[in-house]
Amino acid sequence: MTDLAQPAKSVNVGPVRSSISWTTAVGDVLNLSGPLLVALMCVLAGLLGFTTYASYGSEAAIGIAVGAAAVVAMSQTLILASRPRLLEPMFGGLDRMYRVHKWLGISAMVLMILHQQIEPDFERAVRETGLGELAEEAGEFAFNALLVLIAISWFRRLPFTPLEIPYQLWRFSHRFMGVLFAVIVFHQFFVDMPTGVDPSLSVMLNTFGLGGVIAWVHTEFVAPRLRRREYTVSDISRHGDTTALTLSPKGRAMRWRPGQFAFFRAPEAGFSEPHPFTIASAPRSDGALTLSIKGLGGWTRRLPDALRTGMSMQVEGPYGRFDFHKGGARQIWLAGGIGITPFLAWAESLTEAERRDIHLVHCVRAPEEAIGLEILQAAAARNPRFSFQVVATARDGRLTAERLIGMAPFAVRDADLWFCGPTGLKDGILKGLKALDQTPRRVRFEHFEFA
User: Which domain of life, per UniProt (predicted)?
Assistant: First the structure.
């Protein structure tokens, strides 16, 4: 254990709650409602497509069913990409909403491939729109183009190579999808179809088609102007390969809760595309906020060198539902590398009155990579129920479940585990804890990357 650690303290907090509160249970159920609703809409579209065209044969019905489900899935990817705050509670946070967004896109691609392979052959009279041939060609073009763009979005790293797809190209693939979806909507609206069928499917597809196009227009042209706040870079400091930025509001400051994140742009420095960062500070009276940026990719490696004090940055947010106040009386906060940022904001917000027993473990490669030690030390001095330890794996060895159990001043199985960091660290610790019969009461984590 590195000597940068704050020793763990044994604190008597009384009996541990053996059950989860009803508000927490309701919240857990609510977090599943979003993914279930999304899946239900796709299934409903498929069922409507099949039953509406079943009389034309199973091949035609299946072709329409998978095509209808593809349109609804693609529409919902665009709706979720607009970052609707109203839907965040239904998914458990924007990071999880983006996970659903990703798999919806993949599902849409698979469904489009199936639809393209199954050519519905309608032998009865069809409704000729006059644009049927154009709609057919437009659908073929959009299908091929969407396959390319979805593949770019899916494979951030080229398969079987160490090469990464440039972030700008990845972003472009997302921005252009709305245009191609509008072409898909044109295709499904004007393609020649049989007459005299139940209009329910058409109503559903037109509704989702319009909703998807509106969501894309809102994301690209409306939201950036409505949601963004203007900030100024007031301080830049470096700690090893991590850069701390302090941003001060030019006008009305953004209001956030510790643990939330926001999207940041720096057009003055040549970074006009938004990038998510967790806010590494608690709310302050002057509205200033702190970001801790580690060079993990092209964007984050170039940004610190391009910024200068006095430059403007645009902030959109806040987002996220990572909140330790929703946890129990005993908590373990486990951070891997730059995943410490939400915990720094939490620690800074801790008061003397906080009654939870909290132990934080920060896992880094080398002692000099540990950031925010002064914040953690101040929190430990302010509240005796908070303690922390830093594990430098290059010197102390790999963090294991056994070591985590030994560090905690209470039984891990009696605590809630909050995690932010690389997935491999989380999976390894949880697997080890399960093998030792020390599975935490609840595990809460943020996805380290959206893509």
Answer: Bacteria
Please state, in angstroms and rounded to a whole number, the distance separating the CA atoms of residues 187 and 139: 5
CA dihedral sign of residues 164, 168, 169, 175: positive
Selection from 142, 134, 154 nearest residue 116 by Cα: 142
Q: Which of 382, 94, 432 is nearest to 262 (CA)?
A: 94
First to last CA, the chain: 34
Q: Could you tell me the sign of the dihedral formed by the alpha carbons of 404, 407, 410, 416, in that order?
A: negative
Indicate the residue type of 357: D
User: 260 with 278: CB under 8 angstroms?
Assistant: yes
Peptide bond into 35 cis (omega under 30): no
Res 224: pLDDT: 79
pLDDT of residue 171: 76
Give the model's pLDDT for residue 12. Answer: 36
Is this prediction's pTM over 0.85? no
pLDDT at res. 125: 52
**Rg (the chain; Cα; Å):** 25
| CA 386 – CA 406 distance, rounded (Å) | 17
CA distance 23 to 14: 22
Q: How many CB atoms lie within 10 A of CB 214?
A: 16
Predicted pLDDT at 147: 80
Residue 432 backbone phi and psi in degrees, to 5: -65, -40
C-alpha 110/C-alpha 126 separation (Å) is 27
Type and span of the H or E element at 271: strand 271-278
Give me the average pLDDT of each 10-residue run along the chain (451 residues): 42 37 54 92 97 90 94 96 91 90 91 86 61 85 85 67 70 84 90 78 95 94 87 94 95 95 94 91 97 83 90 95 94 96 98 96 95 97 97 95 97 97 95 97 78 45
What string of DSSP letters covers 194-254?
A: ESS--THHHHHHHHHHHHHHHHHHIIIIIHHHHHEEEEEEEEEEEETTEEEEEEEESSSPP
**For residue 406, is it left (φ>0), alpha (ψ between -120 and 50) or beta?**
alpha
Tell me the CB-side half-sphere exposure of residue 121, using CA atoms within 13 A.
5
